[in-house]
Each structure stands twice: as C-alpha cells, then as structure tokens.
Automatic annotation (TrEMBL):
Protein name per the record: MTP protein
GO terms under biological process: lipoprotein metabolic process
One term under GO cellular component: Golgi apparatus
Domain (Vitellogenin): residue spans on this chain: 1-233
Species the sequence originates in: Hylia prasina
GO molecular function terms attached to this record: phospholipid transporter activity
One Pfam family here: Vitellogenin_N
InterPro entries: Lipovitellin_superhlx_dom, MTTP, Vitellogenin_N
Coiled-coil parts of chain: none
Length: 251
C-alpha cells in the first residue's frame, strides 16, 4: 500500500482519504504519513482539518508523525502548520508539541539541524516553554525537548531541573537522561549532585534517583560513587537497593 501511494498524485490520495469509510481513515492517514511523498503529505494537509476532524484521527496522524523512523522536512512542516495559531483540544496540542520534538530530534540525527523548518520547530518549543504559565504546560514542552535531544537546550533543562516544582524537575531530569555521555559534562554533573544530595532544597525521590542515574551512567568519579553509596544509608530500602544494584552494575 505504501509503495502504491508513493506513485500516486495528490488528487488521488486526497480522493482516497475523502471517500474512505470512517473506520478505515486512521489506517489510511497512517499509511500516507509513512509514504512521506510530497503528494501524500500535500493531500494530508488538505484533508486534515484540526478544527473539525475527530480527535482520534488527529492523534493517529500525530503519533504516526512522531514515530516515523526517518521523517522528512515536509512532514515537520505539515505538523507545525497544523498546530500554528489554532485553538486545539488540550490532548491534540500536547501530542502535537511532543511530536514536534520527536521530529526535530530525528531530523537532527540525519544531520539536518540547519534546515529552516527544524529551527522553526526548536523555536516553537522554546517560545512555548518561555510563555508557559501552568505546570502541565511546562512539562509538555520539557518532554518535547527531551525528544529533540539538542545540546544547546541543556542549560534550559538544568534550570528547570533545579528550580522547578516536582513534576517539572522530573520531566527535566528525564530529558537530560536521554543525552549521550559526551554532553553530560561537569556543569550537568554538578547540578545532578545538588539535586541528589538536596543541597539547595528537598527533591522528590524520583528526581533524586534520575540525578543519581545520570551521574552513574556517565563516567562516574570515585567520589560520586562513594557519596551515592553513603547516601543510601539514609534512604528507604527500595530506593537504596536500586542504587546499590546500579553501582554494582557500573563496577
């Protein structure tokens, strides 16, 4: 089916989507995303009305885009255009923002970070994060940054990891866990030590555990290992056992 659609013209794909029974449309949308031909994406652009279509169909489109293994710049362009300046249902907006992060990350893996549409995607996430006032909003934008895995966003993630409320700290530390070892440098490690040892304020155990994992998974120093082991004596049994096993595996 994908091979067939790759050779189809926009009008034919659009006609197929419009004439399909309601129950088969999600499948056809998923196939059209997987095809990623210019004509298929143009047909999807005309077909999908984010103000009218059922939420299930829009979510299917966004999930298909987010999980696309090698997305094209046209796909990111389509997602951004559909999200831009529209009043969307909360769940569609959330899925869309996270999908943008995923697409940005995968395009950058393909060495396409310099594309204008990728820069637009990054700016969309960062601008949204700067303007977010509610905690759930902040968390969604941090999840998107976690999907993007862009080194230049590490300072932003560190700021939210140390200073945010529990859900924000958890989302930011989870995002930092996705970065490869070369990007977990001294500044990141210092912040993770402060979170784990609660030097500035108290942190939820999930956040402390994520901070410890970042330290142990990225060339830990002997002192980090010793200090984490010493700290386990003051933790609840389950958390202490997990960290002891983590250290044992590292060794």
């Amino acid at each position: 089916f994908i091979q067939m659609l790759r050779g189809a013209k926009k009008r034919d794909v659009l006609q197929l989507l419009r004439r399909a029974p309601q129950e088969t449309r999600p499948f056809l949308v998923e196939v059209a995303v997987a095809t990623q031909s210019v004509d298929s994406l143009a047909a999807l652009s005309d077909f999908l009305d984010f103000s009218k279509e059922p939420k299930s169909l829009l979510e299917k489109f966004l999930y298909a885009a987010a999980f696309s293994p090698r997305p094209s710049e046209e796909l990111l362009h389509l997602v951004l255009d559909k999200l831009d300046g529209k009043q969307l249902a909360p769940e569609i907006w959330e899925t869309g923002v996270v999908a943008v992060g995923s697409l940005v990350g995968k395009l950058c893996q393909q060495k396409l970070c310099g594309l204008q549409v990728v820069e637009r995607g990054v700016e969309t996430i960062l601008r949204g994060l700067r303007g977010a006032e509610e905690e759930p909003e902040v968390v969604i934008y941090l999840l998107a940054l976690g999907n993007a895995v862009l080194p230049e966003t590490i300072p932003t993630l560190l700021e939210h990891a140390e200073d945010g409320p529990t859900a924000v700290t958890a989302a930011a530390t989870a995002a930092l866990q996705r970065f490869p070892a070369p990007h977990i440098r001294s500044k990141v490690k210092r912040a993770m030590r402060r979170i784990f040892h609660q030097n500035r304020k108290s942190y939820d155990k999930t956040c402390r555990l994520a901070a410890a994992e970042i330290l142990l998974d990225n060339h830990p120093s002997p002192m980090d290992v010793i200090n984490i082991l010493l700290a386990t004596s003051q933790m609840e049994a389950e958390l202490a056992t997990f960290l002891l096993l983590k250290v044992q595996n590292s060794l």
